[in-house]
Amino acid sequence: MKIIFMGTPDFAVPSLRRIASDPEIEIAAVVTQPDRERGRGQKVQFSAVKKTALDLELPVLQSDNVNKEAFLDKLRAFQVDFVVVVAFGQKLSEELLDLPKEGCINLHASLLPEYRGSSPIHRAIIDGRKITGNTTMYMGPGWDDGDIIYQQEIKIKRDDTVGDLHDRLAEEGSELLIKTLKDIKKGTAPRISQDEDKATFAYKIDKSLGEIDWSNSAEDIYNLVRGVNPWPGAYTHLKGDRIKIWQVEISDQQSDKEAGLILKADNNKILVQSGEGVIAIKKLQPAGAKKLSVSDFLNGYDLEPGQKFR
Q1: Coil, strand, or helix at residue 190?
Q2: Is residue 110 a known part of a binding site?
Q3: Which of 83, 179, 193, 267 falls between 20 and 30 A from 37, CA-CA?
Q4: 174 assigned to a ligand binding site
Q5: Domains defined for the chain, CATH in brackets
Q6: Residue 217 known to bind ligand
């Protein structure tokens, strides 16, 4: 079979590599977002998918709007069976959806109709879920509302960060995608409409999501810290300084002090009162510094019980 692959970030890379390794599949072209200026030096950088495609010696196409007629003409010329979309980042027009013979197939990192949108992995951890998964679907005109083909459940481990879960979903999803394409081609793949009444949404996130509200429960704070690691990162403030919090545990210590109050600071952990329960901070990062253990942090930062995170 012949496909066009559309994707941009790291999540799409395992799928691209897995498809490229399959002798039954020909990748006619890889479509990804335009190169962007990133980082402090604002250097132009390729997307993760473009880097991988070039390593695999696959043809790469880029456009800030894949729905323009001139770009659609380029895609039509390939006469593909499928357009495969994994975390691409642009909405596809009906003209593009109708372009491949067998349809546009999407891999989405949730058990749809749960967590439609751009941040399903973050939200699953922040919400304290124990199970998430991947869905392959026929793409429709809306956001992640197309007919479901296959789903696979993935357990969320107690200490998973969003980075850990992201990588596991990406790898497992690549195999689900291969099965999907081959079964559609054989005529054995199911097609199941989504239940709109059960739809939930995981909208695009920004850095503000990582701000810790110490009036929340210790469980909620624990999930937030995991759910924004490595991006955008959890943070709080102490004496006007912004401090990122990278690793915490829920302490078995009992206290009814004011939320945000530092109860103890020693070489192993910083105990902080939450709205319900106590959080033990294990790894943190002052502004302009690297990530530090509590021991290293306390060597250079005057922290005492009675001070308060805000």
Answers
A1: coil
A2: yes
A3: 83
A4: no
A5: 2-202 (3.40.50.170), 210-300 (3.10.25.10)
A6: no
